[in-house]
Design the sequence.
């Protein structure tokens, strides 16, 4: 399992539907309503962060969103169970007598979208499983430069896909873009070309899926549902590695693996036909009636009134597309800096390096099969993502992010200790395996899923796509650089020194998250945006 690496629950049925308000309000009424909503969100701010505008402190210290307190009461136990009880943990975890099934209506929609992440993980597994067989059949076996070039061109395609994703979604919406973007993934698999078309498709999907889930999911379950991106990627990797086991004896099996990738692509195209469009995108382009219908269908009629009012207060019927230059102005520059920094630090905390050396570490303890070693790593990653899905809306994004990077730093230093000090061979191998699996598990708890979840939460409706596109292009650039220079650094300084550097970056990222990340759980995207903005939407700055 090698680069690219990621990075990067739930619905309440109302007892009584809310009355349907008039949508054609005068601008002055809409402005007055937006002022009232904004004032409620910004009240009583005991805490200020210098990096952010003081209004954003309300996100961490203000009263919970009404969606968080919607009936019925939620249970404190985990709702993520395999099989018939499959689901995600609720937001507050405050206890309660009945199982919280408020996520049921929205789950099929976000599950269908997250199949794109499954396909992402599947292609990662394909590229890192039978890559030797691919090189042999295509005539570049034994040429590390050309083998590396295959991965590099894949990443370059993903770079341009992420960069161009915002234009597609602005024009077509999330639903249609997901369907159209599946076409290069299907074609690339069918013609056995996993480099350019698949790379571009993956680049668009990595931006689009977390954005779609954040805009479709109810506030109470947004974090837990957001972890479906990480879970889907892990399952895709596991599926590819499991399916790739016959490739150890059949050198032509890789083509079968690529053909199999067409199946989830077709399922995405068909499934998204029945999925809802993002209500935020519908409101942004002025289709408020359609947005209200979507909210009533997947969140419940009791949430429609407040949700539509909040969407109006930030959209202000502005259907023009944001420009990249807007990321240079406040408050968008802060969010773009946060997003780019999180992905920069995530990649230089060493996830690709650990994945690269994991097979060597397992080989030292007698597990010679690279695919089997990667399966152990993939299952550990999957387990961490499941735990994160239960904790995301209970402990919050910030706590998980800090705890994740502290755990990754401890795991790195544990591996450094095992290879740098004279220990019994069996003890050293045990510590290396423990450190590797602990690193992967703690990465999946926060550094993996939180990074993709919190960036769209902090972004405004107008610039969300641009911020996500910018952040993921930073991810792909850093991914490329780490993959390019990692082995050279190991040859120059040794594994211990490089891993110690990764541990230091992990500690630095935990400190960065503590100082500059604000908690977003339990807040609607509109509340966060109004708290972030120094002035109301549409008002002069």
Sequence:
């Amino acid at each position: 399992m090698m680069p690219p690496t990621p990075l990067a629950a739930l619905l309440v049925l109302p007892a009584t539907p809310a009355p349907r308000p008039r949508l054609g309000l005068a601008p002055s009424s809409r402005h007055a309503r937006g002022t009232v909503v904004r004032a409620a969100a910004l009240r009583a701010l005991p805490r200020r962060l210098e990096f952010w505008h003081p209004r954003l402190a309300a996100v961490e210290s203000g009263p919970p969103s009404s969606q968080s307190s919607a009936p019925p009461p939620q249970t404190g136990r985990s709702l993520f169970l395999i099989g018939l009880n499959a689901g995600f943990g609720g937001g507050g975890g405050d206890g309660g007598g009945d199982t919280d099934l408020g996520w049921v209506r929205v789950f099929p929609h976000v599950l269908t979208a997250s199949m794109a992440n499954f396909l992402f993980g599947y292609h990662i597994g394909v590229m890192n499983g039978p890559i030797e067989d691919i090189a042999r059949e295509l005539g570049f076996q034994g040429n590390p430069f050309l083998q590396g070039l295959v991965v590099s061109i894949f990443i370059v395609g993903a770079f341009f896909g992420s960069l161009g994703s915002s234009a597609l979604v602005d024009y077509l919406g999330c639903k249609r873009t997901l369907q159209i973007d599946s076409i290069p993934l299907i074609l690339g698999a069918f013609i056995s070309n996993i480099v350019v078309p698949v790379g571009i498709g993956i680049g668009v999907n990595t931006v689009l899926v977390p954005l779609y889930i954040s805009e479709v999911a109810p506030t109470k379950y947004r974090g837990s549902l957001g972890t479906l991106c990480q879970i889907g990627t892990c399952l895709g990797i596991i599926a590819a590695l499991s399916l790739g086991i016959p490739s150890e004896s059949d050198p032509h099996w890789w083509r079968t693996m690529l053909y199999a990738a067409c199946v989830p692509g077709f399922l995405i195209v068909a499934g998204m036909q029945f999925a809802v469009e993002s209500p935020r995108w519908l409101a942004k382009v002025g289709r408020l009636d359609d947005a209200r219908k979507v909210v009533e269908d997947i969140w419940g009629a009791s949430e429609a009134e407040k949700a539509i009012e909040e969407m109006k207060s930030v959209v202000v019927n502005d259907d023009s597309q944001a420009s990249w230059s807007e990321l240079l102005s406040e408050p968008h520059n802060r969010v773009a800096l946060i997003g780019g920094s999180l992905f920069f630090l995530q990649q230089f905390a060493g996830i690709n390096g650990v994945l690269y050396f994991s097979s060597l570490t397992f080989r030292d303890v007698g597990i010679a099969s690279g695919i089997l070693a990667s399966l152990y790593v993939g299952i550990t990653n999957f387990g961490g993502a499941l735990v994160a899905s239960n904790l995301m809306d209970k402990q919050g994004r910030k706590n998980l992010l800090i705890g994740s990077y502290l755990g990754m730093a401890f795991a790195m230093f544990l591996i450094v200790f095992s290879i740098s000090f004279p220990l019994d061979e069996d003890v050293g191998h045990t510590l290396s395996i423990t450190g590797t699996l602990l690193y992967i598990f703690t990465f999946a708890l926060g550094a993996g899923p939180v990074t993709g979840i919190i960036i769209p939460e902090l972004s405004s409706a107008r610039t969300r796509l641009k911020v996500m596109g910018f952040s993921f292009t930073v991810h792909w650039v850093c991914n490329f650089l780490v993959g390019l220079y990692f082995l050279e650094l190991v040859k120059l300084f040794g594994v211990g020194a490089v891993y110690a550097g990764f541990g230091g970056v992990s500690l630095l990222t935990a400190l960065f998250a503590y100082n500059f990340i604000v908690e977003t759980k339990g807040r609607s995207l509109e509340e966060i945006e109004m708290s972030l903005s120094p002035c109301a939407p549409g008002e002069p700055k």
About this structure: Residues 92 and 394 are 5 Å apart (CA to CA).
